[in-house]
Specification:
By secondary structure, the chain is of the alpha+beta class. The protein is built from 4 helices and 3 strands, in the order αβββααα. The protein has a 3-stranded antiparallel beta sheet, with helices on one face. β1 and β2 form a beta hairpin.
Length: 134
C-alpha cells in the first residue's frame, strides 16, 4: 500500500481545501495510512501535521491575460460559387461544328462504305472542310 499513498499525498497537498489549512497523516490501528484535512479520528495515530500554504501564482493575472489574448478565428467553410456560364466563343462554336461534320461524315461512310461513289465521298470531304475552315 506504499504506492497509493505516494500517489495520494501530492494530490492531497495540491487539493487543500483552503490556504493556511493543515494536512494530517493518520495511521489506523490496522496499519492503514490516510491523508486528510481534518484531525485524525479516535483510535488512529497522528503521524504528522503539515501546514499547507497556497503557492503564489507565477503570473497572478494569467487568467485575465489568457482571456485578453487574441483567439484564432476559425474560417468559415469555403463557399462554392458557380461561375456564370459564358456564352460559347466563336472558336468554340467553330470547333463544335467541325467535330459534328466529321462525326456525321464518318457515320455515313461507315453505313454506306460500299455504296458511295467517288463524287459522294468528295462531297462529304468538302462539307467537312467547309465546316472546319471557318
Amino acid at each position: 500500500m506504499r504506492i497509493p499513498s505516494l500517489v495520494l499525498f501530492p494530490a492531497l497537498l495540491l487539493s487543500a481545501a483552503s490556504p493556511g489549512a493543515d494536512l494530517y497523516k493518520c495511521v489506523a490501528p490496522s496499519g492503514g495510512v490516510s491523508y486528510q484535512s481534518l484531525p485524525c479520528a479516535e483510535g488512529s495515530r497522528q503521524a504528522w501535521v503539515q501546514p499547507v500554504k497556497a503557492e503564489p501564482s507565477a503570473r497572478p493575472h494569467a487568467k485575465k491575460e489568457a482571456r485578453s489574448e487574441p483567439r484564432v478565428r476559425r474560417r468559415p467553410a469555403p463557399t462554392v460559387r458557380k461561375a456564370r456560364p459564358r456564352p460559347p466563343s466563336e472558336a468554340h462554336k467553330r470547333r463544335l461544328r467541325c467535330e459534328k461534320a466529321r462525326r456525321e461524315a464518318d457515320e455515313l461512310r461507315d453505313r454506306l462504305w460500299n455504296k458511295l461513289d467517288f463524287q459522294q465521298r468528295s462531297d462529304l470531304d468538302a462539307k467537312v472542310a467547309r465546316a472546319c475552315a471557318r
